[in-house]
Amino acid sequence: MANNGVDASSSSSSVERVVVVGASLAGLRAAEELRAEGFTGSIVMIGDEPHEPYDRPPLSKTVLTGWLPAENTTLPRIRDVAAEWLLGVAATRLDRHHHEVHLADGRRVGFDRVLIATGTRARPWPDPVGAALDGVFTLRTREDASRLRARLAALPDRVLVIGAGFTGSEVASVCRELGITVTVAERSAAPLAGALGGAAGAAAARMQRRHGVDLRCNVTVMSLEGDSDGRLRRAALSDGDVLDVDVAVVALGAVRNVEWLAGAGLAADARGVVCDAACRAFDCDAVVLDDVFVAGDVARWPHSLYNGELLTVEHWGNAVEQARTAAHNMVCATTQRRAHKPLPSFWSNQFGNNIKSVGLPPYADEVVVTQGSVADHKFVAAYGRQRRIVAAVAVNMPLWLDFYASQIEARGPFPPDLNAPDGPEELVPVSAGFPRPGQATHSAGVALTGPGPSTPSAAVPATAPPQDPRVPPGPLPLH
Amino acid sequence: MRIVVDLNRCESYAQCVYAAPTVFRMHGEESLEYDYSPDDTVRGQVERAAVACPVQAIAIDRTEDDVTPAEARHGQQRR
Predict the structure, then answer these.
(1) Are the Cβ atoms of B31 and A352 closer than 8 angstroms?
(2) Which of A47, A147, A272, B74 is 20 to 30 A removed from A456 (C-alpha atoms)?
(3) CB contact under 8 A, B4 and A346
(4) Element containing residue A324 per DSSP (H, E)
(5) Rounded CA separation A301/A293 (Å)
(6) Per-residue model confidence (pLDDT) at position A306
(7) CB-based contacts of B11: which residues, under 8 Å, 6+ apart?
């Protein structure tokens, strides 16, 4: 076998070609890390989009406001990857038996190691007729953002945002910044409730309304209706209201790109591709594979900080870290493998506010403001579960999160013992108010998707917290 | 040139805004916005911004690595 510059005593001495399926953030960072590890074999990058890897966070922010052209979002290369790039062509099949990835144009690409980094796509509007109307948008790709930007630049009379997760809330923020009337329809009781809980969501609702958003909670959009020219004209809401709208942005979260893995014999379904903490995929008999790795939004893995429950995390930072760990483990000696157990973290900018989170808020049952003041839009809230701190969210106070991160990693007490001069005299936690597992929320960004191999049985709650009573649990009544 | 900022790491010290004001800006008091593809004429400013960042959140391209168009590879069978 070729000299690849990696420890010859390892199993990686047989690695000559690594194929990375998915040419976005995770794929690029994995390729860079392979080179940083000294891998000198060939790297093939496969991406269904025709672009070099670009960054998605600005697509719902500075690209929509018009400050940043969509094509100015290409990611820098931190080092040479000297890869062969197969862009604009989707992978259609993983043939583990022959060690090949099949492409949509009929080509087959052989591999010694493959990284599955196919990520997610925007969940489309469920009715294909409504989804195809001129004026109905989703937001995931550079093209999506360019099209929506062009429409917003024409200052439509009213924009409807369907779903008040982070993407929907950021789009609503941009609309208000541009002076556009915007209605937001959110199925749960508050915006951001899936990611931050109902208590923090209530604060987000006040923030949206203060900025002039027509926010409708506990409401869902039933249909999008067009005119004879196929242009969006109206939206019918579940509470019977009918809105005249020119533009609707469908922000209903993401769908994992796993369809191409059908028949590959992997433990993959709509929740993601199950892998171990070393990013190695499980096959459908729960055998861990040495040649198939997973990273980024599409991965589902047991996290030791959360009782080994299987996590999916749609965060920028997770894609970077998991890709690096996967790349390391692909080519390292078997005794040098690392576990992927980062503290989840994300950020959002909306309505002039900076929101940052560390840990896993949806894992919590209680929340308490520990510093600052919600009324002043400058505060930190700590999230706890069973008297341990599991997450913290800072609004316009990013400086403090490192401290909370260290508390979470140390499994510190909740409520935290801070004695912060800007904190309340007494910490009185309230229910965090996360939607019941299985209840539809638009974009949690992270999901606990069930026990993993090391999860103690007592860690999985036998009963779910009560559902918000205003959301009908069954089908909507006829009318 | 190309840059990316790790906004998980960013703590809004805004040193980059002073170093390269046409590339970085604050939106509100704590939200950093930036251009991923600044003109090469401000590379010096951006390099200084990256050095000045107290949390070292700014990454700059270190390569002119070529991306080979897929078309050029068409028909090539692997193994």
Answers:
(1) yes
(2) A272
(3) no
(4) helix A316-331
(5) 11
(6) 86
(7) A398, A399, B54, B55
